[in-house]
Every structure is written in structure tokens, then in C-alpha cells.
Amino acid sequence: MGGTMRRIGITGGIGAGKSAVTDFLRERGYAVIDADEVSREAAMPGEPSMLRLREELGDGVFLEDGNLDRKALAELMFADSVALMTVNEIFHGDIKRRMAVACDKRAEQGDKVVFISAPLLFEAEADWMADEVWLVSTDEDVRLRRVMERDGLSEAEVLSRMENQMPEAEKRARADAVIENNGGLEELYAAVEGRIGGL
What we know:
53% of the residues lie in helices and 13% in strands. The protein has helices spanning 18-27, 35-42, 48-57, 70-79, 81-108, 140-151, 155-163, 168-174, 185-196, and strands spanning 6-11, 31-34, 113-117, 132-137, 177-180. The longest helix is centred in the middle third of the chain and has 28 residues, at 81-108. The mean pLDDT is 92.
């Protein structure tokens, strides 16, 4: 991985407020490599992961213009555990490789700290990329309400997504630091400020 750059993983369950943390870090001038952004790049038509996905799952998960039909893919993944494993195997490997390359570029540019933001950091077994992991943690009822309001989903739909993620207690046990996010943004920013003060 080269250099003496510190790599800090930022993770959290759906609705925990991870994006608010990474937005704040960017405003403070820190480099953030975001797995969601990298996955969007990997999901562009013609990219290697897309070609493999079409081979494995067929045309049904693609729109006519060649873009991924995210709704159809999500429905298939929730309904079919083999499809879920196939998608994860194709994507997670590609995304981890892209993120490792991005980290190396940041080290070459002389960055001392880079944040790796990934909702499935533990689930995808990508925590090896980080020297330490910060977990953004929020009570389940707060997360449930946030995601229902944000994405217009039913309670059952949000709960099914939560069930596909590692239990919060396990994440807390594996994280090096926990940033509690049950209050407002000011409290969250103060908690993050407290952590970056030690960098």
C-alpha cells in the first residue's frame, strides 16, 4: 500500500448517518474514498463487472440503454441467495481493487490520512484496507424512521435491508471507535471533531 498514510474506514448500517460524517470530513479538507461512488463507476455500461454480470444473470437486470436496472437487480438479490452471492463476488472484488488503487494514488500525492467510506466494510471483508475502523452507530428505531422518510420505503422493506447487514452488536465489537448518532447534526459533528482531533 506504500507510504505512511493512515487509512481510516468509516462504516455504519443503513440510515446510521455515515454520509453526514463523510460530508463533514470532506468539508474539513480530508480525502474520502466512497465505496458507493466507486461502485457507480464499476456499474457503468461496458465496465468489466457489467460484462460479467450480463454473462451470469442475463439481460433481465439491464435497461435497454445498457445501464444496470438497479430495481430489478435488488429484487433478484433479495429473492435469490445464489444471485446475491454472484453479484457480491463480482462487485466486491472489483470495488475493493478500485479502492485500493485510489488509496495508493492518495499516498503518492502525499496525503497523511484518507477515509474509506463503505457501508458493507465488514460484510465485504474489506476492513483489511483500513488501519482502523470508525462505526457510525444509531439506534435501530431512529435508523428505521430515517430510511422510511428518506427512501419512501415501508417498515418491512427497511427491516429486510437491515437483516441483510451484519448485526450492530457485531460491528461495534469489531470497530476501533464508535461515533454515536442519536442526536442532531451538531452533536454528530462534535463527536467526529473529537475523533479527528487525535489524528
